[in-house]
Write a sequence for this structure.
């Protein structure tokens, strides 16, 4: 952090970064009178995403996985969440240039609706249930992962 602060204190570097050719935006502000709309849109996105789909990988991890696999499953879910964020960040600008802004947002909207349907259909409600009941509920589901198999359950009875 200190080298960066020293670099910016240098007038030559600061002037080239902030006021170089084509970089006068720093002193003049946003060139459009609709710049506030981006701030409102970002605020609305954060307002609706944070209590909704943004919490799914974090809150569900504390309730849905068996205790013996909670650490590894939480790590997998967190990794999947950040990889998804990386994919969106990497492809957004390319998609807007290729198919246009409207189609890009439509594509991400469709993906969000599919994710919502998946959560509503596949993720059980665990509110107020003790961990033992959650494990029992998940054992009765038709789709079970191999690592959730109990040691006393024969392998040929595993449902997939």
């Amino acid at each position: 952090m200190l080298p960066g602060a020293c670099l910016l204190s240098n007038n030559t570097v600061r002037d080239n970064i902030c006021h170089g050719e084509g970089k006068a935006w720093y002193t003049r502000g946003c060139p459009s009178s609709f710049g506030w709309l981006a701030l409102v849109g970002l605020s609305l996105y954060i307002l609706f995403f944070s209590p909704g789909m943004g919490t799914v990988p974090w809150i569900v991890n504390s309730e849905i996985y068996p205790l013996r696999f909670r650490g590894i499953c939480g790590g997998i879910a967190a990794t999947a969440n950040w990889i998804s964020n990386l994919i969106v960040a990497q492809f957004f600008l390319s998609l807007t240039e290729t198919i246009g802004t409207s189609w890009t947002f439509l594509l991400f909207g469709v993906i969000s609706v599919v994710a919502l349907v998946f959560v509503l259909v596949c993720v059980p409600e665990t509110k107020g249930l003790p961990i033992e009941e959650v494990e029992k509920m998940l054992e009765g589901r038709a789709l079970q992962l191999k690592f959730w198999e109990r040691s006393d359950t024969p392998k040929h009875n595993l449902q997939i």
About this structure: DSSP finds nine helices and no strands in the chain. The mean pLDDT is 74.
